[in-house]
Every structure is written in structure tokens, then in C-alpha cells.
Amino acid sequence: MAVEICIVFLWHIHELNDDYGTHDEEKLIGVFSSAEKANDIIENLKNAEGFKDYPVSCFITDEYEVDEPNWTSVFFTARWTE
Predict the structure, then answer these.
(1) Cα separation of 77 and 56, whole Å?
(2) What are phi and psi of 60, to 5 degrees?
(3) In degrees rounded to 5, what are phi and psi of residue 44?
């Protein structure tokens, strides 16, 4: 019997207005072995510079099962200019 292994991605996403217009600024904070560990990091970062000016709801966690296709039907293309 195979053991299911899951990982949790922790993102910080908020709307950003700059010279290129309005878009989402997305930061991948890290990949964790549990939601609890990701939540501990949120607690540590929510009042830190770069995060404290945004609501805690800007922290997003996504859980994925290892060795399974997690993206099979929804894809996006990110484009930017410099």
C-alpha cells in the first residue's frame, strides 16, 4: 500500500498598481510538509515588512499530493515587459 505524501505551497498574493498597470504580485514563500507548518510561517510573517500592509487573507496555501498530476486542465500564461 502506497503512502500518500502531500506538500503545501505558501503564497502571498495581492493586487499591485505600478507603471505597467494593475496586476497581482505573487510571492512563493515556500513549500512545507504540512498546513500547520505553513500557518506557523504566516504567523511569523504577517507583521513583517512587505506583508504587514496587506490582510492576512493575502496568504494562500495550496496542498498537492506528490507523484500525482495536479494540473491537468487549467493552465495560464504570465506575460510581462521590462
Answers:
(1) 27
(2) -125, 135
(3) -75, -30
Query: Angle at CA 48, nearest 5°, toward 42 and 51?
Result: 70
Strands of the sheet containing 59-65, edge to edge, are: 21-32, 6-18, 59-65
- Cα(74)–Cα(57) distance, integer angstroms: 23
Question: Is 55 a residue whose pLDDT tops 80?
Answer: yes
* Of 14, 26, 17, residue with least CA distance to 57: 14
Over the stretch 13-34, which tens digit does the pLDDT of each residue have?
Answer: 999 888 878 888 899 999 999 9
Distance CA 51, CA 44 (A): 10
57 and 48 in contact (C-beta within 8 Å)? no
What is the chain's alpha carbon radius of gyration, rounded to the nearest angstrom?
A: 15
User: Given a cut of 90, is residue 9 above it in pLDDT?
Assistant: yes
Of the chain, the percentage scoring pLDDT greater than 70 comes to 94
